[in-house]
Amino acid sequence: MTITAATFTSDDQTIIPGVADAQSAQTVQEAGLSAAYLNGYDVVRTQLGQTNEGLTSPSEMGDVLRHVKENVTGPVIVDAESGFGNQLTTYFVAQNLERSGAAGLVINDQIFPAHTNDAEVAIIAFSDFVAKLKAAKDAFDDAQTLLFAELDGVQAYGADGLAKRVAYLKQHNLADVILVGHVSEDTFAAVDAWQKRRRSAR
Question: What is the pTM assigned to this prediction?
Fold first, then answer.
């Protein structure tokens, strides 16, 4: 079983359930789903009973991933959060997680530590985010490892800012898949309208 960028960029729906440990990853595989997503929030909830993703270190995420990969054969996409620091940290995090078995990494544009709670989300400069994506790409040993760029700051930079960031990431081939997170009810309509305009322009 393999996944590629086309798995996520086609108009077909793709379901990638979140997992927190080897047992939940086994459940996903037994259900016949194409991949699992090792989510930082769920790992912290399972390991520590807390809601702060910053409590888990990159090496701990690598340990959990290795346990998962010892028990499942399918691809696992891993939440690398905001790279756990600057671009140098991101390089070594990406290298460690790929070598631990990640089929893809998700890196967001939040200030470290990243947060799931909308009220706690703070965004780094776009140039710093670009540097982290480049560092992750440089760290990969396997050209098939996918890089997901997650744009979490729609509430800060708006639909227009989102459109500019997506265009730049695509133009410079900085990620295989672009995700949009933390879209509130207030910003959903604007993002949805932008997405419809983008599709009609294809």
Answer: 0.91
